[in-house]
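Hallway conversation turned thread

IA: we were arguing at lunch whether anyone had actually written out YgiQ family radical SAM protein end to end. Turns out nobody had. So, for the record, here is the sequence (650 residues) and right after it the structure tokens. Reply here if something looks off.
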Amino acid sequence: MEYRLSDFLPTTKKELEMRGWDEIDVILFSADAYVDHPSFGAAVIGRTIEAAGYRVAIVPQPDWHGDFRDFKKLGRPRLFFGIAPGCMDSMVNKYTANRRLRSEDAYSPDGRHDMRPEYPTIVYSQILRRLFPDVPIILGGIEASMRRLTHYDYWQDSLRKCILCDSGADMIIYGMGEKSVVEICNRLAAGSPIGTVRDIPQTVYIAHDKGDVPGGIGNDDIVLHSHETCLSDKKAQADNFRHIEEESNKMHACRLIQEVDGHCVVVNPPYPPMTTAELDASFDLPYTRLPHPKYKNKRIPAYEMIKFSVNIHRGCFGGCAFCTISAHQGKFITCRSKESILREVRQITEMPDFKGYLSDLGGPSANMYGMAGHNISACEKCKRPSCINPQICPNLNTDHSRLLDIYHAVDAMPGIKKSFIGSGVRYDLLLHRSKDEAVNRAAAEYTRELICRHVSGRLKVAPEHTNDNVLRLMRKPSFSQFNAFKHIFDRINREEGLNQQIIPYFISSHPGCHEADMAELAVQTKRLDFHLEQVQDFTPTPMTVSTETWYTGYDPYTLEPIFSAKTQAEKLAQRQYFFWYKPEERRGIEQSLRRIGRAELIKELWDNASFKSSHGSVKHAGNNIANGDKRTKYNTQKPYGRTGRRHRRD
């Protein structure tokens, strides 16, 4: 299908004139290139506002230098400015775990890394506040969402206030914000001043003081330790985070209040999870699924990765300690209908460069589609951050039947040769033994179907570590489960005459991980004939349990002290063990093993036979990626919008 310029949301004065508009209701400023696709948040929120009957425009990647002409070119909106800082946190997007500048920006044309500032939420908001002091500014997206309360910033190595304090904006919409943004539009359009719309769910604002909090502070509110207290007491910051995470994962959450600079940051509880009909409506908006024509033939790396992928559900109940999904999307799964999924697949098959292969038919986790509690009333009372850790909840329905039905329906469509599963697979769900034998049979059928029909030669899974204590802090299953799944994977490959690899992801320097734990990881993965390359050093990102543990030195749930490798020397000493098979790493590892009293592992790693074979028969667990973090994924975690893949921690 050929699209006209007017089929995209307008980005320039000329495009407004093409539509005959002399006024705009909402102007969105995005730090990403404008890709009109349901995996890109500015497009999602823009199309949502448009569907509600309002005029909306997008200014992608405005120049923040000089005379600020990009911020002035569309004039003053009737309702508000929206800040959509990008699908990834800007600092994760720009820098590696070692704080080195990344070689490319996946969300910019031709991967240019000079198209966005650091912290665009703050930079864009401050510019707009100076130019249009009386126009409301609403923040959204992963950057503001994860910085809605006092948070640790790894790149500045400091504890930062709620981002509203630094940006000068009026309000944050946190999480997946379609409902909130439409309600704000409706209220402002009806004439309500921005200061009177404080009761909208899933928003954050600053009250002048405790007396200015609407309805007063009640028994159901949770008053957190103040920002100033957290600055002087790391244990208070850790204690705060337990409440923040719990309230992010409850169906009926409490309001959170935190004092800062004599004012009060107020976090309203989120909306209930979207219904299937609501999620379908969001995905069925009239996206062109293409980058804006202004980019012509320029390559946008993140788009190239997801252009032939389909996101089938929202939410993740894994609760991984280093992941922002639960804080942004919540743990409850909302599924798209089969009809909505098939409509999107059909649209992809009509794209001129589609060759018949879907790159991903998944979500934040590949195999959580259709899963929820048997007894929803029990879920309504639950505040566990994970439904599957430390063990799978007996109330969780782990039936893979609905997902298998989706796979079969998609694969039967004309134009589809094969659908791959690029999202991460939770093998603990596949290994779980239910009391219902039909559920167990579906899990076995799904496992075989996945391995035989949906793997492009390599299946990516994320054990993350081999040490059970580290895995406990990560909220990941025991490494014995990875071994069990690998055994099944290898057996099915033998039975089906396939020659596929399993590609494990691992993390070094996670809280609780010591150098000796990494030495054991090297030995265990060597025994499995892996040469690890899909690896990374732990990067603290705002609003995760792992980050709070790393910064404070305490487990937020027990307040017990936890060791973390923090210095460059400590982190490199752990990271080197991933690459025991590289000759240039051997000397440093041998010295480290002697220093930590584990010299007996030297022979385990480098007996003559295995060391010679390390250049030949041993499997490489991943591709050889250039310097920097070696597992960067082009995350489709959208500002205001939805997430296509789990937010990788690099």
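OS: looked through it. The two ends are 37 Å apart (CA to CA).
IA: good, adding that to the notes. Confidence is low (pLDDT under 50) at residues 609-620, 622-650.
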